[in-house]
Amino acid sequence: MSITVYSKPACVQCTATTRALSARGIAFDLIDLTEDDEAMARVTELGYRQAPVVMTADDHWAGFRPDKISALS
């Protein structure tokens, strides 16, 4: 399963999300929205205005969502 986390520096919810994924042994790619204009455009086009944005093959969401993370494992 391919999981991408779009984050920003010093983002508490981003850190909580990546820690929760790592704690469950779930591999993910991390992309810094402040360094990747195309990634920022992609999440903005989807209507997101907060970080992190997590994208899986079948779903995507914003913010720290323990319920969604638990469903991945």
Automatic annotation (TrEMBL):
GO molecular function annotation: electron transfer activity
Pfam families registered for this protein in UniProt: Glutaredoxin (PF00462)
GO biological process: cell redox homeostasis
Domain Glutaredoxin: 3-61
InterPro entries given in the database record: GlrX_NrdH (IPR011909), Glutaredoxin (IPR002109), Grx-like_ET (IPR051548), Thioredoxin-like_sf (IPR036249)
Matches recorded under CDD domains: NrdH
Keywords from the UniProt entry: Disulfide bond, Electron transport, Redox-active center, Transport
Similarity comment: Belongs to the glutaredoxin family.
Function: Electron transport system for the ribonucleotide reductase system NrdEF.
Name listed for the protein in its UniProt record: Glutaredoxin-like protein NrdH
Source organism: Paracoccus onubensis
